């Protein structure tokens, strides 16, 4: 019996290769170039004049070609991975292209009028249909209104987020969270009408930059609360426990440990809220009214702002007015960009050092 078992032939499975075929690194770029050429060709053959249609067809061809080629060479499993990566790149391009297009159009049209004279003069004595004038009064109004709104909304939003994360619990925290979520979707015109009904009509105050700032603060608060709340939740509990174990009070732990750890994300959230309110026109139109004169006092008299200035000039419709509108839009974009750069610098300066 033992000899029979020893003489029986043993089946040997064929040796499988330890490595599989891989596409070269330049393959995605080559597929992208071919997809663009195919999309343009299909668009021209179909008589499509919109480059957006060409781009969408190119994106579809890119994903399909990536899947087909990868399946042929590397297998279906690797093809699915490459298709997922391709979809991420396609979505990234679809998001970046409109942004670059907007920036290019704004810069190319706004740079024609933008100069030191435009930034240092108002529209006082200049007809809207005529050339000349500047944006100084609107820029000053925007700086004051956004600054006051930030001074109102940022501390309230920050303290509310600290309460929800560090102290909140029960029905009160749930109610605060609910109302914050509701306020996030409030249209800007509703915030303007609320301030108009209370501040102007009931209390009897006239139009001013401060009234517009209060409406902007209402729009800014929920964004600050939600972003700050998420950043505070990312702070490891071990840091809080280590501080409390040393006998440090909770308020000091929050002030010296939690907030400095999350300062980068908190600053980014505040800047997102500032960018959200900087371009609002409806509250300013209701509460600030707009003026061609320079009014440095935000607490009395009508003021202007950059979004309102853009709206007014574009509504005139003449070449000179439209050119001023594009230049003011470019100033508005530059204003938000400068604020973001300054905020990131402050956040990096105040962030806790990680080195020894």
Record keyword descriptors for this entry.
single chain; flat; 15 helices; 356 residues
List the helices and strands and how they pair.
Elements: H1 2-7, H2 27-46, H3 51-73, H4 76-110, H5 116-120, H6 136-167, H7 171-184, H8 188-202, H9 209-233, H10 237-245, H11 250-261, H12 263-278, H13 282-287, H14 306-316, H15 319-350
Helix pairs in contact: 2-3, 3-4, 4-15, 6-9, 6-12, 6-14, 7-9, 8-9, 9-12, 10-11, 12-15, 14-15
How would you spell out the order of helices and strands?
Answer: HHHHHHHHHHHHHHH
Number of strands: 0
Query: In what range is the share of β-strand residues?
Result: under 5%
Q: Gyration radius, to the nearest Å?
A: 30 Å
Report the helical percentage: over 70%
Mean pLDDT: 85
Low-confidence stretches: none
- Biggest beta sheet attributes: none
Structural class: mainly alpha
Supply the number of helical segments.
15
N-to-C CA distance? 74 Å
Please identify the oligomeric state. single chain
Structure description:
The protein has 356 residues and is mainly alpha-helical. It contains 15 helices and no strands. The mean pLDDT is 85.
């Amino acid at each position: 019996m033992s000899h029979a078992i020893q003489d029986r032939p043993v089946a040997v499975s064929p040796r499988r290769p330890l490595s599989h075929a891989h596409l070269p690194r330049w393959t995605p770029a080559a597929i992208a170039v071919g997809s663009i050429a195919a999309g343009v060709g299909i668009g021209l053959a179909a008589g499509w004049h919109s480059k957006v249609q060409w781009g969408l067809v190119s994106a579809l061809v890119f994903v399909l070609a990536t899947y087909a080629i990868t399946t042929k060479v590397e297998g279906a499993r690797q093809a699915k991975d490459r298709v997922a990566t391709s979809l991420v790149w396609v979505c990234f391009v679809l998001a970046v292209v409109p942004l670059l297009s907007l920036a290019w159009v704004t810069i190319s049209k706004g740079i024609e009028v933008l100069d030191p004279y435009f930034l240092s003069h108002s529209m006082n004595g200049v007809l809207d249909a005529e050339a000349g004038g500047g944006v100084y009064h609107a820029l000053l109004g925007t700086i004051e209104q956004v600054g006051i709104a930030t001074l109102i909304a940022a501390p309230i939003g920050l303290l509310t987020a600290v309460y929800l994360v560090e102290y909140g619990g029960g029905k009160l925290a749930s109610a605060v969270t609910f109302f914050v979520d509701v306020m996030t979707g409030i249209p800007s015109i509703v915030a303007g009408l609320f301030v108009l009904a209370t501040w102007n009509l009931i209390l009897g105050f006239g139009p001013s930059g401060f009234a517009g700032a209060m409406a902007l603060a209402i729009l800014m608060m929920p964004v600050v609360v939600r972003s700050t709340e998420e950043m505070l939740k990312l702070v490891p509990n071990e840091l809080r426990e280590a501080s409390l174990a040393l006998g440090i009070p909770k308020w000091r732990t929050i002030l010296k440990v939690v907030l400095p750890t999350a300062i980068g994300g908190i600053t980014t959230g505040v800047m997102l809220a500032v960018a959200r309110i900087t371009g609002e026109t409806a509250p300013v139109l209701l509460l600030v009214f707009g003026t061609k004169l320079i009014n440095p006092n935000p607490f009395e008299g009508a003021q202007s702002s950059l979004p309102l200035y853009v709206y007014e000039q574009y509504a005139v419709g003449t070449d000179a007015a439209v050119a001023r509108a594009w230049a003011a839009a470019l100033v508005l974009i530059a204003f938000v960009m400068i604020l973001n750069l300054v905020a990131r610098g402050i956040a990096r300066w105040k962030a806790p050092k990680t080195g020894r």
